[in-house]
Amino acid sequence: MAISVPILALSALATLALYRYILYPAFFSPLARIPSAHWSVPFSRLWILYYRSREEETPAVNEAHQRLGPIVRIAPNDISVNSVDGGIRTVYAGGYEKGTWYSNIFQNYGVMPMFAMPDHGPHSKRKRMLSNIYAKTTLQTSPSLSAVTRVLMGERLKQRLNEIANSGEPAEFYWLMAACTMDFVSAYIFGLSQGTDFIQQQELGAKFFTNYKARQRFQFWPQDLPLLTKWLGKLGLQFLVIPKWVNQANADLEALILEMCDKSEHVVNQGSREKAQENWPNVYAQLRNALLKEQQSCKDDVKVAEFVNEQRLAMASEMLDHTLAGFDTSSITLVFLAWELSKPENVAWQAALRSEIVGLQDKSDAKAIDNLPILQAIVQESLRLHAAIPGNQPRITPAAATLGAPGHSISELPPGVRVQAQAWSLHREPTVFPDPEAWKPERWLPPSSKTPTTSPYASDEDYRAAQKEMGRWFWAFGSGGRMCVGSNLAMYDMKAIIVAIWGEFKTSVREGDGMVHRGGYVAEPVGKDGKFLILDVVSAR
């Protein structure tokens, strides 16, 4: 009996579909050699999308690594690595490209900032324009930054803390830390008079932070399901997944930063640095002048006013990204640091920190602050255990890639595979960080240090070996050419804030039940009943 052509065609299509979507990914793909986090992973993205949509991806992937090893398949074309050799050194120091995951969401005014640029070339070009203004030597010798520190920390924050201490009422420290970091970062980028003043303008700051944080809950849709999100938008149905107020919140943020940029341009146009050094827009001026110089090298008759008008949104997009990323990440780390430092079991660490700070002659001296070993250890351990961005950092494999720790490596991977690592898992490798879930600043200090707890090291040699290995696995700021450009400023502003608070005040936990990490790309505290970290504050004098 003859079989009709349509039946043969349907059978061929079914066989092809069976091979392409079931047999090949499960048995014949190079990725089939990698352990799967879930039985459905070779065939579908649903497992990882489920956890991403609920902001639970980080612990889910970490559990998969604990169960299956240092390389895990988490979707048909996605893998996660948790190692230095064959992992972050290969992927991030090796210059793997970013792909579109970042550019799907990290665009402002319709313009892509450096952070979201998918290709290495444009990113490197922009980074060269900005890296010097964030260099440690620049920060430590900046009269502008010293002046900003004296005003923000020595005057505004000190006044606010005295008000809290004198009132006898506890304070919500998450919003206070966010106010401090936003004021600090915006002051360095735009100048003090052009930046925010949320330490003093508390209601305005609380409104800003609430709107900023609320909109982050909806980034999953355009970031991980961009085609669906665009399709819903064309049908006028995007509100089903992203409330309309989110677009307004984004517009308000863009308007705020654009206003700061315009004010900064006015300062730069005055032709010389402000008499008040704290008002100089350090980062804005650096980018603006670098872009202008680049354009002048390409053509002769460049009119500055026309240039500024043409580049206005590009500069604003870059400044928005630096401002929001800078304040958000540092405030998250600081609130968890404050939580750890204010626990009853860590009162001795708080006292040791205070004793170290008291010895400072100038609390705005960036170099002196950077040389405090107990302060450094407390910040380092808080960044390890409470990294603000502990989630996935995806990259795209080139052809014939080899990934995986020694003994677990997989070779000849095809191009276009999404590979990621996450600081959460790297920072919890027990062979590198013993007792990884415990907050132990002593792991970063030599055995000769005067610390409240016993050193884990029997000798200086043991200490140096441990520091070298922990340094390889420490990933709070990423690594390679795409490493956080503002990491030095982040370290400085966190340390300056800590010095201002615990140099003169004591804190203790009143309420901390909300101090549980969110499990997504960003790991801010989830809060409880609208509260995060409520601390009692008293004068240490």
From TrEMBL:
GO MF annotation list: heme binding; iron ion binding; monooxygenase activity; oxidoreductase activity, acting on paired donors, with incorporation or reduction of molecular oxygen
A Pfam family matched in the record: p450
Binding site for heme: C484
Keyword Cell division found: no
InterPro entries: Cyt_P450, Cyt_P450_CS, Cyt_P450_E_grp-IV, Cyt_P450_sf, Cytochrome_P450_monoxygenase
Keyword terms of this UniProt record: Heme, Iron, Metal-binding, Monooxygenase, Oxidoreductase
Known cofactor(s): heme
Transmembrane segments: none
Record keyword NADP present: no
Compositional bias (Low complexity): 446-456
Top-level taxon: Eukaryota
Renumbered residue ranges of the record's region Disordered: 436-459
Family under the similarity heading: Belongs to the cytochrome P450 family.
Name this protein carries in UniProt: Uncharacterized protein
Source species of the chain: Elasticomyces elasticus
Phylogenetic placement of the source organism: Eukaryota, Fungi, Dikarya, Ascomycota, Pezizomycotina
